[in-house]
Amino acid sequence: MGASSRSLAEDHARYIVRFKSSSLSATAPTSPSSVQFLTASKVERVLPLDNSVVVMLSASERDAYVARPDVESVEVDAKVTAFFAPNDTSYSEQYALSGPYGIRAPLAWDITRGSPSKIVAVVDSGVDFTHEDLQESLWSNPGEIAANGLDDDGNGYVDDIRGYDFGSDAGDSDPTDENGHGTHVAGIVAATGNNALGVIGVAWNTMVVPVKCLDDQGNGYISYLVNALDYVVALKDQGHPIAVVNMSLGTNQQSDALERAVGRVASRGILLVTAAGNNYGQNNDAVPSYPANSTSESVLSVAATTSSGSLAGFSNYGPQTVDLAAPGADILSTVPPLLRGASYEYIDGTSMSAPVVSGVAALVAAANPDATSTLLRDIILSTVRPLSTLKGKVVSGGIVDAYSAAAVGLASRKRYRVYGTVKRRSRGVGRVTITLRLATGPTYRKSVITSSSGRYAFKDVPAGTYTLKATRPGVSFASSSRRITIGRSRAVSFTAR
Length: 497
Ligand SMILES: [Ca+2]
Ligand SMILES: [Ca+2]
Ligand SMILES: [Ca+2]
Fold this sequence. Notes:
Blueprint: E1 13-19, E2 43-47, E3 52-57, H1 59-67, E4 71-76, E5 79-82, H2 95-98, H3 105-109, E6 119-124, E7 164-165, H4 181-190, E8 207-212, E9 219-221, H5 222-237, E10 242-247, E11 249-250, H6 256-267, E12 271-275, E13 299-305, E14 324-327, E15 331-334, H7 337-340, E16 344-347, H8 350-367, H9 373-382, E17 385-386, E18 398-399, H10 402-411, E19 415-424, E20 433-438, E21 445-449, E22 455-462, E23 464-471, E24 481-486, E25 490-491, E26 494-496
Parallel strand pairs: 6-8, 6-10, 7-8, 10-12, 12-13, 13-14, 19-25, 19-26
Antiparallel strand pairs: 1-3, 1-4, 2-3, 5-9, 5-11, 15-16, 17-18, 19-22, 20-21, 20-23, 23-24
Helix pairs in contact: 4-8, 5-6, 8-9, 8-10, 9-10
Bound molecules: calcium ion (3 copies).
């Protein structure tokens, strides 16, 4: 806008105002007008679990809120956008599942195809409920009666029979996709398999709950996302078995409100899978993207690879902050035919690579129903398939491997400790890297570095036959590599020469 368009009044912007007292918790999440003490400013929405409201404020009004004794903090409610990348010429198959640089999904499906008692929450633009290839995969709320204006199951949301829509300031119980992004993401996770139609999702027996926070343009606000994540918390607290939240979206704006919402989801034992972003080669270590760069241990950040196994040109990376990669270029999945003119479309983006990982997480959760989010994360990262193209680009240096993750997930129903000491015949051996690798079958590799006293430990090691190796440049060991079978916890020690 030019200078001539500057309005008489000050420009207003969206802010998240957090209060010190718990005075907001008594208000219904769906009735912002019930917050009486903010009459000077229109309350756009309420974030009840965060004790926060969203209000439109001028700079001077913002300062007045900051100065209020009952206000904890005021932060910008920045825009959150879907991580689309422009579509490109498409290939005629789902290389992501079975191609040379795919995730070995058919082998994984011999172990598990996911489970209807494991739910993936797709926090996105909603879903097309009429799509022919998603019919078997959409969660419905057994405790809720449709369209009677009542919150029958008492979870705080009226008529939420199939998710909820936070993608506008009003909010309602209809998370129908008006953009197409969420439907594409949902199909990557769980499009129905073996039905002679369209495509197959990575975990095609799992269930998807759409939680809408992006509008018809694929845009929302941090506050929409916070509401969406808190809806996931409400479902989980009511006993719905949500294992994974997929977030193929983000913003460059750091937000404490978003970080706290991520923390609430994580505290429920749910894994959060996020897209690293599509800023064409941006290093997230230097320029963070949120929620991908969340400090929570329960958040995985995913870059995108192509059908030839290279890092996609549009994909962000981050040797410290992006955990792994997954196929994300030219991904064929479901879209709403009334919006897009076809039922299936090829789309590019880290938005497409994140749900590949979410699908794999759902497979692992089905293979080991007792797995915590910590174990899911550990298994996914320990079983990546290393690619030279990803070395120094993502923390794990590889792409997600559905087969290895599902196989190790199954084995992880029984887990053991492998621990020991590196003994020193000479002084000053220093820290030694101990690497544990499955000797046969699935890819599995973990490393730890010994403590200053020479000790190491791996916990949660699934049953199997492993190679255990000690390495340190310039140091030789009496026996640096051991083949061990783990069916109980055991100590293995090394001796440096
Ligand atoms: Ca309800
Ligand atoms: Ca109802
Ligand atoms: Ca299908």
